[in-house]
Each structure stands twice: as C-alpha cells, then as structure tokens.
Amino acid sequence: MNSFFDKGNQYSAPYAFTTTLLGYNETKLKVLGVLDKANSWVLIFNPAILTKLKSKVTVLDSQCELMSAAQTYLGKPTNSTNPADWKAAKEVILKAKPYWAAFNNQSYIKELTVGNIYVAFGYSNDMYQAQQDAKKAGRKFAINFNLQKEGNTLSIDNLVVLKDAPAQRLGVQIRQLHDGRPVCRRHDQPDGLGQPQRRRGEIR
Known about the structure:
Elements: E1 12-25, H1 26-32, H2 42-45, H3 47-50, E2 57-59, H4 63-73, H5 83-96, E3 102-103, H6 108-114, E4 119-123, H7 124-137, E5 143-146, E6 153-160, H8 168-179, H9 182-188
Parallel strand pairs: 2-3, 2-4
Antiparallel strand pairs: 1-4, 1-5, 1-6
C-alpha cells in the first residue's frame, strides 16, 4: 500500500500475494531423515543433503527467483549490487544443479502431487494446490510447505488503472470494489493466494 508510484492508492490496489518457498513430500523426507531441513534452503542447495534427494528436486526456471533464493541462502541481500555476491550465488547453484531433476515452472504441482518428486521450489499457492490435490486423490503421503528460516521473497499482484485508460472511472470503481474485499475474498481462498488487508493491518 501507498507505494512510490501511487501515493494514497488512488489508482492501484494489491489484491493477492504469494511467497516463493519449498513444497515437499513430508512422508518421504521423514523416511530419508531430512524433514528437519525443510525449513531451510539447505534442502535444495547443500550437496550433502541433496545426495539423499538426487533427481527428486525441481526448481523454478527463473533466474530472478533462483538467484534470489541462492543469495538468501548465503545471507546476502537479494538486490545486492556486489558482483562477488552474484558470483557466490552462481557457484552455489552450479554445485547443486547435478542433483536436481529439472528446472520446472509448468508441472511441479502435478509431479509433487503424484509423488514423482519430493521437493519443489515454487510458489506458495501452487504448493497449497498440490497439498489439496494429494488429499483429494487419497495419496498415501502428505504434501506440506513452509517458509525458510533464512528468508523468502514475496510477490504481490496489483490491480492498476492506467493513466490514459479510456474508461478510467470504471477502472477506479473496480479497484475500489477489490479494495473492499468481497470479490477478492472469493477469488483468493480456493487457490491459496494470500489477501492483503488494509484494515487494522490484518493479513487474511
């Protein structure tokens, strides 16, 4: 809210957010003895851990998301301008890459749901979907997801009315409707997206 590009939110409103994190097959990780690592980026970057998960891990095919995760794992700022930080993140990724099954943006929900992979680096709403799909299918394993202790990135979707929009008044009314939350609430809850809530600083 109140971002630099729209002070007072006259023309924009955040309506959904998701977090980039790790989803995992809780049952399998427990059997492999690495469930206690699920709250850390070591699960996808530390070769000592990855030896137990070889070819059962997928990561997002996104240089922005992957480099950000590697920087966070190293304790570096994700928006670092220091070339040494970027080089260190690159080296972390190259060391972990041989253990990964794929760079995957498209089918990791399904792969996690059916048990083909044990760990997926992706978005929290996708992990929620995988978790629910596995439950509905009666899988004999549990899918879970959580934040990593080193930190995670947050993505926010904004509804924005363009300055030169031909029906600007209608756009502002739609924005106000979203800001009132009745439409937003129905949209978000079924797919696990978070909902920014301005009132009293709540996040539902």
